[in-house]
Design a protein that fits this description.
Elements lengths: L4 E5 L3 H13 L3 E5 L2 H11 L3 E5 L7 H10 L8 E6 L3 H10 L3 E5 L3 H16 L9 E3 L2 E4 L4 E4 L2 E3 L3 H11 L6 E2 H9 L7 H15 L6 E4 L3 E4 L8
Helix pairs in contact: 1-5, 2-3, 3-4, 6-7, 6-8
């Protein structure tokens, strides 16, 4: 089996050493760079399976690197996991909206970083999502064609917006979405975006889902995600 190639970008050598050691131990091949400019160059020539990207880089920072990767056809499909210091919530939100797949805050647990990398690679390997296919996850069944939701086999009545939000989150379990991304997906980006409007919908949705409502997790300062089932870890 060919090792997955990871491009790790950070200007701190000790961080790169930690990432390299732990991911290599788990069977990944790690390419280390200390600048955003070099990261863009190697992303094209090496075609990594995933990029671990520090936001605080000298020169071209991580957000700019993320933007360049997503805007270039040659690199637009490479998954990105951001590394960010705690308290940089605005940067996390912006990074996710620019197209990053997930984030890990510093100081971080190597085991958590490895798990996040595996989860992102696993989600990407599932390929294109069939928007009409039924979704069964966390005790919830969603039937897009019939606009029907079942919890424990019993139908639950949702509003149009609640149904669309639930479907959007459940199609990508484990992914963190900002409030703006949720509204853009549900409303097509044509409506005014407010944090309050999304929060109110989520509260109502959790209430209607009963015990299964705990699967919709709040990611403080960022947004929401549908909890990824533990049995999918392998």
């Amino acid at each position: 089996m060919v090792s997955r190639k990871i491009l790790a970008v950070d200007d701190e050598e000790d961080i790169l050493e930690l990432v390299d050691y732990n991911l290599t131990k788990e069977g990944f091949r790690v390419i280390r760079v200390t600048s955003g400019e070099k990261a863009l160059e190697l992303a094209k020539t090496e075609r990594p399976d995933l990029v671990i990207l520090d936001l605080m880089l000298p020169g071209l920072d991580g957000l700019e690197v993320c933007k360049h990767l997503r805007s270039d056809r040659a690199t637009s499909d490479i998954p990105i996991v951001m590394l960010t210091a705690k308290g940089e919530e605005a940067d996390i939100v912006l990074g996710l909206e620019l197209g990053a797949d997930d984030y890990v805050t510093k100081p971080f647990s190597p085991r958590v970083l490895t798990a996040r990398v595996r989860a992102v690679l696993r989600r990407r390997s599932r390929g294109v999502v069939d928007e009409d296919a039924p979704i069964k996850i966390g005790g919830v069944e969603i039937h897009p064609g019939r606009h029907e939701v079942l919890v424990g086999g019993k139908p639950v009545r949702l509003t149009f917006t609640e149904f669309e939000i639930l479907s959007f989150l459940a199609r990508r379990p484990g992914w963190v979405f900002t409030r703006y991304q949720i509204v853009e997906a549900v409303r097509g980006g044509e409506y005014a975006v407010t944090d309050r409007s999304v929060d109110v919908q989520i509260v109502g949705l959790r209430k209607k889902l009963g015990k299964s409502g705990i699967n919709i997790e709040t990611v403080r300062g960022v947004g929401y995600r549908f909890k990824e089932p533990i049995d999918e870890e392998n």
